[in-house]
Amino acid sequence: MNFVMPDFYPAIPEMFLLAMACVILLVDLVLPPSRRWLIAFLTQATLVGCAILTFATADGQVVLTFSNMFVDDLLSDFLKLLVYFSVVIMLVYSRSYLVARGLEKSEFYLLVLFATLGMMVMISASHFLSLYIGLELLSLSLYALVALDRDSARATEAAMKYFVLGAMASGLLLYGMSMIYGATGTLEIGGVAQAIYHGVANKSVLIFGLVFLVSGLAFKLGVVPFHMWIPDVYHGAPTPITLFIGSAPKLAAFAMALRLLVYGLFELAAEWQQMLMILSVLSIAVGNLAAIAQTNLKRMLAYSAISHMGYMLLGLISGVVGGDRHFALNAYSSAMFYTISYVLMSLGTFGMILLLSRAGHEAENLDDFKGLSQRSPWFALMMGILMFSMAGVPFFVGFWAKFAVLLAVVDTGQVWLAVVAVFFSLIGAFYYLRVVKLMWFDPPLDSAPLEAGFDMRLLLSANGLAVALLGAFPQAIMTLCTFTLLRSL
Amino acid sequence: MIASYLLSLSIWLPIAGALVVLATGSDRSPGTTRWLSLVFALLGFLVTVPLYTGFDASKSAMQFVETVPWIPQYNINYFLGVDGISVLFILLNSFITVLVVLAGWKVIQKKVAQYMAAFLVMSGLMNGIFCALDAALFYVFFEASLIPMYIIIGVWGGPNRVYAAFKFFLYTLAGSLLMLIALMYLFLQSGGSFNILEWHTLPLAMPAQTLLFVAFLVAFAVKVPMWPVHTWLPDAHVEAPTGGSAVLAAIMLKLGAYGFLRFSLPIAPDASHALSGMMIALSLIAVIYIGFVALVQSDMKKLIAYSSISHMGFVTLGFFIFNQIGYEGALVQMISHGFVSAAMFLCVGVMYDRMHSREIADYGGVVNTMPKFAAFFLLFAMANCGLPATSGFVGEFMVALGAIKYNFWVGFAAATTLIVGAAYTLWMYKRVAFGAIGNKHVAELADIDNREFLVLGLLALCVLGMGLYPFPFTDVMHASVDHLLKHVAISKL
User: Fold this and answer.
1) How far apart are the first and last CA of chain A?
2) DSSP secondary structure letters along A228-274
3) Which of A138, A287, A395, B179 sits CB 3.0–4.6 Å from A306 for a disulfide?
């Protein structure tokens, strides 16, 4: 057996991030606690560096390396850039919150970096093993992050739940992968697709594996009936961690769904579309209905996340109709656009919770938003934009996201499915409107001025305005989604 | 040069004005905010005037057309244009906005800038609805216009404002979401186009037409509102501030009726004919039954709200009897109702500002203390019940004529509204204005000031002018209505 040096070039951003994480670990050893800001700075710089490297190495070619375990294509470059982007924003939003609670430890930054690395590997995985390794790197970092506030019983409980259920989901995923390996004799995603295409795989074993694969995937996406962890973890985790879980990992999970189902098991689309359709309808229904009953904003947003992932799945299940594949590009790019829009809105809303929180006060209940329009009309406007966008009201980006997936659904002829989706989005509008009502129609309970720093205010405003601007001009992102998918499929 | 951007200006000028008002306004200097808002409202009205003067009434084609690709991914264009049907509503809307800014001059003391901005934004969005010829653009404006109204009702409304605001928003959203799916279906059927004019000529089978008609019906019936989905309107009207009620009645209700003309009738003509019996029945129920409901109201705003539903029943009736006089009558009725209902709500607002009560029983003998006001109020009340020489008469008479042409008994039933309408309006007027001074609050009432005189006077001019000489209004719409009728008569099967 002779060793062939792999081509490292496509994986330069990952290697840079790993190297920088080690450097930060070492710096932390010698750094006095008063200079903690340097760690934050280095982390941000690392992410920016990764972004530059990813951008510089993006050449539009599909390059496989590390014995076909790692793929670098436009899709992965685009999604990675979005991941860095949302992690950078998350770090800015969370700093003052963490400082005020004594949680701003270097572990936080390192775990975030490792989670980011995990997401990058997931996004670029072209092999079941690398996919699994990326997923575990992300998940283990997240479990630890949820328990970051170790003296908080609620956070520890959430971390425990997340860990136990997450481990089970990983088990399901692995089991599914092993089944598919058994049927096709390969773990390479491309190889699996080939084997199924040539009809050499045993169909019933494949379907068996597929069920487990979809279950594991559904857990990571957080769709019904694998959603139980979402409300507890969103609620229990410190808000910056909730913000983190609610943003970038959704992009990675989307990439995972795309790699597994579309790249690997496209021949079985008819089967997994049926499964995902049930998950999707259930998520939209349960997410929107349960969100109404919540008084805690983080819990409400958790259920809202469930329903949003359900809408995203609507795009994924509209790719193939009766063997006809010409819908695929539009459908998958609509799901991608949905995910990106959702991440942008999610960043903004959790950012608003962080903005209103201060030392000794968690602004996580709905009532904390009462009368915000009198305390700060500007940020009430931003939150209003975010809420209307999540509800899917134009001119905001959330409308176009729903528009795109619904159009994809109607295109496949399943008008009833679109009607169901639309019906529950009406119910969903109620609880988003309630937040607007609290901010504008009710008098404030709390008159303390907002304490956030300039950088956070600026970024949060930009976030809110981006939701409005992308709502007025969604074409650029739509084109990017379609283009990257077209060049990578 | 500027003439080719008039429609865009009529949409974006008020919205830009709203942003300026929001940015510069503060409750410490409400005076500047008010004047600034008035300037923008007036500018917004001024840019719509050339739309009327430059309009070629002999053509039924779209005029002042603007096309810019907006979202090429879905072939969505920023496509604007007006014909004889829509041009008047843009003028009406911009005109009412000026009056609403004036009407809120003194009453609104809290968050003045936000109040004015909300109305300016809404004015722009509603102009957008009336001139959008791309269905996606239409839908975007249609739904976005809910946001400012929701805020207006919820922030400056009455005691039960939260309930009313939610009911308003969710009811309308429920209707329009179904329409969204209909629009997507049409997009796919037409081979990837959101162009409404192309949809007009798209052949469709009967089942598809029926489903589309029903989807549009749900959206527009809620907005009109038609019986039995009208229940949000009395709540919204009662709780909204005066200006909100005026805009709601004068413009927002017209969006639903306009939707019938732009979507339901030309896109699904066969279904429209097939279901016209049901539509006429629903319209007549609105006209007669809701008229009686109005009779028993003790709250003035509620009474006018029900009277609006009844009057809008006349409009939908006019659309589904398929003759020229019915259509033109319905359109005239829409414009006239825009003036009259706005005027009625502003009149109630004038009294409410002084007495903080809308109950009829709290008034009595207002004419003794507010003679000028009572005169205006009487004129508008008369117009509301369709007295000849007021604008209310023209539309109702034309629709009734058309209805009799269509079927005598339909016409007969519709014409009873002239009696019921007179009954509830005049009875209310009698109890409020006439008789001895009811209580000491009424005795202390001050008559209207110059600002209120100006607002009501302008509306009175419109009401009388339109009643005496309606041709400036009807001449504009002849060609377009004629075209529409011919189009609706041709089967698309």
Assistant:
1) 33
2) THHHHHHHHS-HHHHHHHTSHHHHHHHHHHIIIIIIISGGGHHHHHH
3) A287
- In this complex, the residue of B114, B169, B181 whose CB is nearest that of residue A433 is B169
Question: How far is residue A472 from each of residues A78, A311, A394, A465, measured CA to CA in Å?
Answer: 22, 21, 8, 11
pLDDT at position B236, please? Answer: 87
Chain B residues within 8 A of A388 when measuring between CB atoms: 147
Name chain A contacts of B12, Cβ cutoff 8 Å.
Answer: none
Residue A163 pLDDT more than 90?
yes
Determine the average pLDDT of the residues in A113-142.
Answer: 93
Is the per-residue pLDDT at A448 higher than 80?
A: no
Give the start-to-end residue ranges of the domains of chain A.
Answer: 9-264, 265-489
Q: Where are the alpha helices (DSSP H) in A293-327?
A: 297-316
Cβ neighbourhood burial of A271 (10 Å; 0-12, 13-18, 19+): middle
d(CA B449, CA B368): 16
Q: Which of A400, A418, A440 sits opposite B154 (nearest CB)?
A: A440
Answer yes or no: do B178 and A419 touch at CB < 8 A.
Answer: yes
Here the tokens at position B470 are: 């309606």
pLDDT tens, A200-246?
878 889 999 999 999 999 998 889 888 889 999 999 899 999 999 99
Distances (CA, A) of A22 to A15, A137, A145, A312: 11, 15, 18, 36
CA distance A377 to chain B (A): 10
Q: Which of A388, A411, A423 sits opposite B188 (nearest CB)?
A: A411
Other CB atoms within a 10 A radius of the CB of residue A293 amount to: 10
Report which residue type is found at A44.
Q
- Close Cβ partners of A473 (under 8 Å, ≥ 6 residues apart): none
Contacts from A55-63 at CB under 8 Å and sequence distance 24+? A55/A81, A57/A9, A57/A10, A57/A12, A57/A13, A60/A487, A62/A487, A62/A488, A63/A7, A63/A9, A63/A10
Best residue in B180, B194, B239 to probe A by mutation, most A CBs within 10 Å? B180
Band of residue B1 on the pLDDT scale cut at 50, 70, 90: low
Task: Count how many pairs of residues, chain A against chain B, have C-beta atoms within 8 Å.
Answer: 80
B148 touches chain A (CB under 8 A): no
Determine the residue type at A350: F
* Residue B201 host element (H or E): none
Q: B352 vs B239, B337, B355, B364, B376, CA distance in Å? A: 12, 22, 5, 14, 16
Q: Can you say how many angstroms the Cα of residue A309 is from the centroid of all Cα atoms in its chain?
A: 9
Instruction: Say yes or no for a CB contact (<8 Å) between A410 and B71.
Output: no
Cβ neighbours of A399 in B, within 8 Å: 140, 143
Distance (Å, rounded) from C-alpha A16 to C-alpha B392? 76
Looking at the DSSP bridge assignments, the partners of residue B71 are: B76
In this complex, do A410 and B185 lie within 8 Å of one another by their Cβ atoms? yes
Residues of B in contact with A441 (CB under 8 A): 154-155, 161-162, 165
- pLDDT tier at B393, thresholds 50, 70, 90: confident
* Nearest one of B163, B286, B307, B173 to B235, comparing CA atoms: B163
